User: Which sequence fits this backbone?
């Protein structure tokens, strides 16, 4: 059994770790609340934007050419993936789940994949394992704005329009609730109005009509508006995905730190019990030594 001093040192070390993990849990909880409020606030806007886009596509003239972001290519020779992970760790299986889902998706394809990484964890993993990372973005603000997402969207759009990619997918984590986050891979480009591939948005838009009845008057005309709206809508999809990922990351980190704190407290309890046993054993040995010495002195005196 370890000596009393060593056990006390271990208890003190574990207690310090528990204080750190408890503080990280509280910070993650605060960030999660802000991220959750932001992601829930943007979902109605995303739903309405999808409805307007669907109606615009239906209203454009048949004699006008199709926008480049709507063109479906066949066969598919190269796929682009925007992989959204975190910059930091200590968030449980959050990064591992989305990276694993992305790897499985890439393995199911029979052609090259170009990766646009958002977050250091996904970038580092893909580079170590030979992934073709053509662009990387990190250090996004804690509460990013649409302006912060524009370079990511511009990179994905340029890759698609230039023909470097025949299709582009988003790989991110849908925020369901504090305990549940769902790794999601869904199509970003070409845009397919009417198809909602996100489980969260599909549930949220269950009562939203895909085909809007009634007429709207567009100025100057639906085709011109569509040319301006489609790139913005692509930015909005990436923005929504990043907000979902941030809420999922903070939730996963809060749960991971809470579990770490609980484990540390449990270990402190076990170590404290071991400490008392070792202390009692040391006291018993000292008493036996004293009793043996006293008995020896009595024998000598006799």
Assistant:
């Amino acid at each position: 059994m370890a000596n009393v001093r060593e056990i006390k040192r271990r208890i003190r070390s574990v207690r310090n770790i528990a204080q750190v993990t408890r503080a990280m849990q509280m910070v993650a909880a605060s960030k999660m609340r802000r991220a959750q409020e932001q992601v829930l606030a943007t979902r109605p806007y995303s739903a309405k934007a999808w409805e307007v886009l669907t109606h615009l596509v239906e209203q454009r003239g048949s004699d006008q050419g199709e926008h480049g972001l709507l063109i479906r290519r066949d066969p598919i020779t190269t796929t682009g993936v925007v992989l959204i992970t975190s910059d930091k760790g200590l968030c449980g299986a959050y990064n591992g789940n989305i990276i694993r889902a992305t790897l499985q998706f890439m393995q199911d394809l029979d052609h090259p994949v170009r990766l646009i990484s958002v977050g250091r964890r996904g970038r580092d993993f893909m580079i170590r394992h030979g992934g073709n990372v053509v662009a990387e973005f990190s250090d996004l603000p804690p509460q990013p704005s649409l302006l912060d997402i524009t370079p990511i969207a511009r990179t994905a759009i340029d890759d698609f329009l230039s023909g470097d990619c025949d299709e582009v997918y988003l790989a991110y984590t849908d925020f369901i609730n504090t305990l549940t986050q769902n790794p999601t891979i869904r199509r970003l480009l070409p845009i397919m109005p009417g198809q909602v591939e996100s489980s969260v948005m599909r549930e949220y838009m269950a009562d939203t009509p895909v085909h809007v009845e009634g007429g709207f008057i567009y100025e100057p005309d639906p085709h011109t508006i569509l040319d301006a709206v489609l790139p913005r809508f692509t930015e909005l999809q990436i923005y929504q995905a990043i907000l979902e990922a941030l809420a999922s990351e903070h939730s996963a980190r809060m749960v991971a730190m809470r579990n770490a704190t609980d484990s540390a407290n449990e270990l402190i309890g076990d170590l404290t019990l071991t400490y008392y046993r070792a202390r009692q054993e040391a006291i018993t040995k000292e008493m036996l030594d004293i009793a043996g010495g006293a008995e020896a002195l009595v024998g000598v005196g006799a």
Notes: The two ends are 39 Å apart (CA to CA). Helices lie at 4-59, 94-108, 120-128, 146-161, 199-204, 222-301. The CA atoms of residues 77 and 111 lie 6 Å apart. Confidence is low (pLDDT under 50) at residues 204-212.
